[in-house]
Amino acid sequence: MAAVDWAELEALYVADNTTTIQSIADKYGVTFSAVKSQHQKGKWLEKRKKKTENIVQKITEQAEKTAIDIAVKFNADDIKIAQAIKAKIVQALRAEEISPQEINSLSNSLATAQKVGRLALGMTTDNTVNQLTGANGTDLPKNNEITITVVDARKNA
Asked: How far apart, in whole angstroms, are the C-alpha atoms of residue 79 and residue 73?
């Protein structure tokens, strides 16, 4: 009988989670007890588990990196959209073509779109909102800052 290359059999076992001690014994003409002994002595199962854990960790890291890249692009797109909307709102307000209520409606629509995108990316939507106090003493979300500024400017004009 030829010498058994235990390192090769170990590598086969560790690399393939479907390979069993019995299948190695049958395929290479070695007794089950001899393979089992080498399996235990060489800690093949622990090595297989470690290899699998390493693969899962790498997959998780890659998935996280991909999610981060998507989130960064999404946020960058949101900033561009918010800036464009803000510019249009300012232009419309200066021409008195849009009411503060319409601005609020647009702001809420943008906030909803941002929440949907963040949820799709598995991100939180519970961001802290800075508060401003309106003319009547009530707190208004920061996204209404432009409304307050324009309304105050119109009052002073």
From this structure: 10
